[in-house]
Amino acid sequence: MSAHHFPVRIYYEDTDFSGNVYHAAYLKFFERGRTEFLRDLGIHHGELAEQGLAFAVRSMEIHYDGAAHIDDLLSVSTEVAAMTGARLTLRQTILRGDEVLTRASVVVAAIKTSGGPARMPKAILARFAPAA
What we know:
Order of helices and strands: EHHEEEEH
CATH topology: Thiol Ester Dehydrase, Chain A
Distance between the termini: 7 Å
Number of domains: 1
Structural class: alpha+beta
Helix content: 10-25%
Number of helices: 3
Largest sheet: 5 strands, antiparallel
Number of strands: 5
CATH class: Alpha Beta
CATH superfamily: Hotdog Thioesterase
Strand order of the largest sheet: 1-3-4-5-2
């Protein structure tokens, strides 16, 4: 499976005093990209919660290579880099056309909504297999 792409338009609220996208806004864009990646695989946060499961970001490494500006149309690329029974490592990139603006490696862990770690159900792991 190739990388999943999700479009993001930059609004005034995403920028700082300099007119560049505020660094923390990229976290929101990455989150939206991960959510839509999961949704396209048929994994919905609401359904996971009904099963007493959730995904939580365990760690994230971000590299800011360029700045986005108001009215830019960006693409958030998400792909599976590694997978275990309880963790998923995702490689995410924010692009403006072919220009890489921001890169992240995100480790997401399965957790119980009641607290503590959880293993991902086999049915969910199977959905990630084509993406890995």
